[in-house]
């Protein structure tokens, strides 16, 4: 098998067309072995643009800023075949997209990660494994949060993901009238001290509860919230508190289930068969968000503006949409959903790292978004969409 040695002056990522290449990183240079079937495209991207640290006190985790969201493994996005899904996970990680987000309630997501991480251990070098991150969530029912109950549930995730220590445990709570969330978080902090969890985080908590949690000296590093060009609620109360405390935001819904893409540009949903079907739960959910924000006509104006920016930079609409949110205050990372084994968007995701939006780009986008309604007034703070009667 022929080999090619590439030396790079800055830390880089490589994309292997068919996953034959093996990456070897060392002190700012990169050695890539390429087989006779393999082609490596090597792009120079400062690692500081690719990865970021989330931290609170001594608790710290570095993650890829573009995160592979695995919620579609829970159903609604097409049937997931196990081996193809794991192959796809390896392909994303080989391209430098090596942070995965999942949950105990996302069907087989944690199990798939367990299979994936074992293949990484067997088939990739140790320095590759050191960069892989698995972020999971725990979404318990509002029952009494005893130490044993919390421990047992975290042990289930550790077993499914086949790791001794969870990189990040993101905690969700349905009912704020039940303050058991504080008990649960204190028990999670105890498990962190035992080495079963590396970092404790939140998902879909509002600003008021985040402040209460921090006042109780629970060292959360991040809060995962819905955030897109249409839904800018996190940049109101939440981002202000995050800037004061150092807590970071991890965002989802950033491409609105695919609505923020060329696929829906210049389409009319009111005419049968004149637009792609809204055939996934995510598309239906974010279409309702568009309706609340300003309607389909204003959304089309936004898409046309994003397309102009995308063409200017030689990228896609989703790439612009994610970059815009990554540039917002307190945002550490943004999730892009992956339909493992069914479709992929590795090239678009890696283009995010090298994209820089200039003042003209940002102003053109803001000119449209300011015409939309204030979703904070309509929906409420971050996560309130899940708690409204």
TrEMBL record:
<protein>
    <recommendedName>
        <fullName>NADP-dependent oxidoreductase domain-containing protein</fullName>
    </recommendedName>
</protein>
<feature type="domain" description="NADP-dependent oxidoreductase">
    <location>
        <begin position="66"/>
        <end position="368"/>
    </location>
</feature>
<dbReference type="Pfam" id="PF00248">
    <property type="entry name" value="Aldo_ket_red"/>
</dbReference>
<dbReference type="InterPro" id="IPR023210">
    <property type="entry name" value="NADP_OxRdtase_dom"/>
</dbReference>
<dbReference type="InterPro" id="IPR036812">
    <property type="entry name" value="NAD(P)_OxRdtase_dom_sf"/>
</dbReference>
């Amino acid at each position: 098998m022929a080999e090619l040695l590439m030396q790079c002056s800055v830390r880089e990522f490589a994309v292997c067309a068919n996953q034959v290449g093996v990456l070897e990183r060392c002190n700012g240079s990169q050695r890539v072995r390429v087989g006779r079937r393999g082609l490596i495209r090597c792009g120079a991207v400062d690692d500081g643009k690719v990865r970021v640290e989330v931290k609170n006190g001594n608790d710290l985790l570095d993650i890829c800023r573009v995160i592979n969201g695995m919620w579609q493994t829970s159903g609604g996005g097409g049937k997931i075949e196990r081996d193809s899904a794991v192959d796809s996970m390896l392909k994303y990680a080989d391209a430098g997209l090596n942070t995965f987000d999942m949950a105990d309630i996302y069907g087989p997501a944690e199990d798939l990660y367990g299979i994936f991480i074992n293949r990484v251990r067997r088939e990739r070098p140790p320095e590759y494994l050191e960069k892989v991150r698995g972020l999971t969530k725990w979404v318990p029912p509002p029952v009494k949060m005893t130490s044993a109950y919390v421990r047992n549930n975290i042990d289930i995730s550790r077993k499914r993901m086949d790791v001794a220590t969870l990189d990040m445990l993101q905690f969700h709570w349905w009912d704020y009238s039940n303050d058991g969330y504080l008990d649960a978080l204190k028990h999670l902090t105890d498990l962190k001290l035992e080495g079963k969890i590396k970092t404790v985080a939140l998902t879909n908590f509002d600003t008021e509860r985040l402040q209460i949690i921090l006042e109780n000296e629970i060292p959360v590093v991040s809060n995962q919230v819905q955030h897109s060009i249409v839904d800018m609620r996190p940049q109101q109360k939440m981002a202000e508190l995050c800037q004061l405390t150092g807590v970071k935001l991890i965002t989802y819904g950033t491409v609105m289930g695919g609505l923020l893409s060329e696929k829906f540009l210049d389409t009319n949903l009111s005419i049968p068969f004149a637009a792609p079907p809204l055939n996934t739960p995510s598309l239906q959910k974010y279409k309702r968000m568009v309706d609340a924000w300003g309607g389909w006509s204003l959304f089309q104006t936004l898409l046309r503006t994003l397309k102009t920016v995308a063409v200017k930079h030689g990228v896609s609409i989703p790439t612009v949409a994610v970059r815009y949110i990554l540039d917002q205050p307190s945002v550490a990372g943004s999730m892009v959903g992956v339909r493992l084994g069914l479709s992929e968007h590795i090239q678009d995701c890696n283009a995010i790292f090298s994209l820089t939006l200039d003042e003209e780009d940002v102003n053109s986008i803001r000119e449209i978004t300011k015409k939309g309604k204030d979703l904070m007034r309509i929906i409420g703070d971050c996560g309130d969409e899940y708690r409204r009667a």
